[in-house]
Write a structure and sequence with these properties.
- Chain B: This is Peptidase S26 domain-containing protein.
- Chain B: Catalyzes the removal of transit peptides required for the targeting of proteins from the mitochondrial matrix, across the inner membrane, into the inter-membrane space.
- Chain B: Its main location: mitochondrion.
- The complex is a heterodimer of chains A (about 180) and B (about 170).
- Chain A has a domain at about 30-35 and about 50-170: Umud Fragment, subunit A, CATH 2.10.109.10.
- Chain A is built from 4 helices and 9 strands, in the order αβββββββαββαα.
- Chain A has helices at about 1-25, 125, 150-170, 175; strands at about 30-35, 55-60, 70-75, 85-90, 95-100, 105, 110-115, 130, 135-145.
- In chain A, the strands form 2 sheets. In chain A, strands 1-2-9-3-4-7-8 form a 7-stranded antiparallel beta sheet.
- In chain A, a hairpin with a 7-residue loop joins strand 3 (about 70-75) and strand 4 (about 85-90).
- The longest helix of chain A has 26 residues, at about 1-25.
- Chain A is elongated, with a radius of gyration of 21 Å.
- The longest helix of chain B has 28 residues, at about 10-40.
- Chain B has helices at about 1-10, 10-40, 135-140, and strands at about 40-45, 60-65, 75-80, 90-95, 100-105, 115-120, 125, 145, 150-155, 165.
- Chain B has one domain (about 40-165): Umud Fragment, subunit A (Ribbon).
- In chain B, strands 1, 2, 3, 4, 7, 8, 9 and 10 form an 8-stranded antiparallel beta sheet that branches. Chain B has a two-stranded antiparallel sheet with strand order 5-6.
- Chain B has about 170 residues and is an alpha+beta fold.
- Chain B is built from 3 helices and 10 strands; from the N terminus they run H-H-E-E-E-E-E-E-E-H-E-E-E.
- The chains are: A alpha+beta (about 180), B alpha+beta (about 170).
- Chains A and B meet through helix 1 and strand 8 of A and helix 1, helix 2 and strand 8 of B.
Amino acid sequence: MGIQNLLWQVTKKAFTGGIIGVTISDRCCSVVPVRGDSMSPTFNPQRNSYLDDYVLVEKFCLQDYKFARGDVVVFSSPTHFRDRYIKRIVGLPGEWISSSRDVIRVPEGHCWVEGDNKASSLDSRTFGPIPLGLIRGRVTSVVWPPQRNCMLALFMVCAFYIIKWVSIQLHVPQDSLWKL
Amino acid sequence: MRWLRYLNQWRGTAKEALEQVSIVAKFLCLIHVTDRYIISSTHVQGPSMLPTLNLTGDVILTEHLSHRFGKIGLGDIVLVRSPTDPTRMVTKRVLGLEGHRLSFSADPLVGDSSVSVVVPKGHVWIQGDNLYASTDSRNFGPVPYNLIEGKALLRVWPPRFLGSLR
């Protein structure tokens, strides 16, 4: 009886946590790993996969789909339905882009994306302009490894000490703080 | 440190308020997940899917599971994010999957000129049932499969047309 109850409690907490996590990751922001070196040296400046960058992707831009030239975005692939790519927007709707062979106009509702590492990047030079509706979020900053983002590391250290100090003032027993 | 003492006094009330807020927040998150990933209702209007869908607007139930598993087939009515305006959703029928060859007439009012096209990899060809009043793949070309957001299940309003869509 006790085991059943415990299992039910754990399932309920996991389900709630999962739903809240999915909502936050859809509407607010999420952290995604960057694979490959098509955005070197902006992301993954070394080729070692142990040191892959993790970036913060914000989803507030999906309310009105207004982007600027130079934004790094995460978008679903136009050719492979399960893939997602991270590239930079270099052309907004209505602009003219000169690709290798000719000059192309970016149609309404589309954008031209290119990787920073032009030598090894699969981008609009191959599959053409992509509809803005494929974009799944905008990259704002690198969150891992911490040495790539000193402001974030500093902030995390300060936040830790502030929380510790406030909990001491509120007489919260220090070992119960870890249970949170 | 007076404000910290006030914090201590109001701890009971704060805890209760936080509990109530968290119940509401969890409920809203559940609504979001159901609406985005399982099933939702959409109001569709416009002449492009006559006679299947009415001009003045219907409410249809759309499910959001099939397209994630790649199970969108020929003849399905799908909800697609418009490739010309990403803030709008359009409802059209899928008439061609990747690799299919289609021929359509570029201007149905004028008549004869026929264009043949092969749907590229990862794309689908969507068309409205009302060929004379629909902007669809005949205008903006095949759309990437990832723009599909849901598949229509059945119509729930107006009640006299309740039932599945064919």
